[in-house]
Amino acid sequence: MAEVLVRHSLNTNKAIKFNFTIRQVTTTKSKGDPLWVLEVGTNSKDFNGEIIPPKIISNLEYKNIDTILEEVVCAMCDVVDWGVLQDDTHPPVLVTTFPKDASINIPIKSIITMRFKDLLPSSGMDLSDMKVVFDTGEIKFDITDELVIDGDPFDYLISWRPHNLEG
Questions:
Q1: Is 87 within the bounds of a domain?
Q2: Residues 14 and 60 in one domain
Q3: Does 30 map to a domain?
Q4: Lower CB density within 10 Å: C or N end of the chain?
Q5: What is d(CA 27, CA 23) in angstroms, rounded to the nearest whole number?
Q6: What is the chain's alpha carbon radius of gyration, rounded to the nearest angstrom?
Q7: Which residues pair with 28 in a beta bridge?
Q8: What is the DSSP letter of 102?
Q9: Helical H runs in 95-144?
């Protein structure tokens, strides 16, 4: 059994514990082949004050266990009574860039990067309306569709390599 503590990003004062149990079972339906069963439980209460029932996932496969765990925990967190949530009052912060401001002699094939963080309490960054423009001083290029974005809504690394300089 494994235990994980989860906090809501807008209520950092409350954490709830999830218990994970994975068991191997054999059923007559499986013709003697073992199946893996995942049980996820918590003692936390929902909005009505009731204990949230455990979720049981049968026929678990190793290749998708991370996705299943995330989906189950998110679904259970959706019904948790998190109490009073704090307002997200601070904008995200640009924490690093490459190249640095006023840098010189940067190789032309360099990948341009920016790392943004959204510090707690936060609802995370929504990049769906983001637009990035490369400004040469004479011409502006919309490079939004050429970006590579890695991370999560609280910590994104955004990279760009000029498309005609790849290789």
A1: no
A2: yes
A3: yes
A4: C
A5: 13
A6: 23
A7: none
A8: T
A9: none
Domain encompassing residue 7: 2-77
In the chain, the number of structural domains is: 2
Q: Which amino acid is at 8?
A: H
Query: Does one domain contain both 122 and 151?
Result: yes
Q: Does residue 63 share a domain with residue 7?
A: yes
Please report, in tens digits, the pLDDT of each residue of the chain (167 residues total): 899 999 999 998 899 999 999 988 877 676 777 888 999 999 999 999 999 999 999 878 878 888 999 999 999 999 999 999 999 999 999 999 999 887 888 888 889 999 999 998 999 999 999 999 988 899 999 999 999 999 999 999 999 988 765 54
d(CA 36, CA 30): 11
| Position 19 in a domain | yes
Cα gap 76→79, rounded to integer Å:
6
Encoded amino acid at 57, one letter:
I
Domain-embedded: residue 88: no
For 10, which DSSP code? T
Reduced 3-state DSSP string for 16-33? EEEEEEEEEEECCCCCCC
- Same domain? 71 vs 23: yes
Q: Are residues 97 and 35 in the same domain?
A: no
The rounded Cα 104 to chain-centroid distance in angstroms is 35
